[in-house]
Design brief:
It comes from Poecile atricapillus. InterPro entries: Galactose-bd-like_sf, SUN1-5, SUN_dom. Its main location: nucleus. The protein is mainly beta. It has a single domain, classed as Sandwich (Jelly Rolls), CATH 2.60.120. The protein is built from 1 helix and 8 strands. Strands 2, 3, 4, 5, 6 and 8 form a 6-stranded antiparallel beta sheet that branches. The termini are far apart.
Amino acid sequence: VFPGNCWAFKGHQGQVVIRLPARVYLTAITVQHITKDASPSGTIISAPRDIAVFVSLLGASGGDLALGGEEETLLGMFTYNVEKDPMQTFPLQNMLLPRAFSHVKLLVKSNWGNPWYTCIYRVKVHGKMASQKDSTQGQD
């Protein structure tokens, strides 16, 4: 993780859909940003602040992702705190939805004050991979 070597998007709101290498029973998500000491400006106001994580119910059977409508399910909302460790892990609420998913959407709702852009340095998705038997169940 090096200053400027991030996925940057314009403004303070943005989203990314991450395709996972396999279907996963999601348990947590980790977000990482650089430290204030590593920042050339001494600030990290481009760090994401309020973040929501969604999955698509239509994608639960292994099909194409259809995020963007009422088929989305919120698995968690959290705040990345720039005063804490640069790598922060947040639990997801998958207990109500015990399914494996192949995609996850990270929606950044705000940052720490940068009006021009927001940077995401690293996102890790945690969970248990679905077995081959699980991934073929429910498919035609």
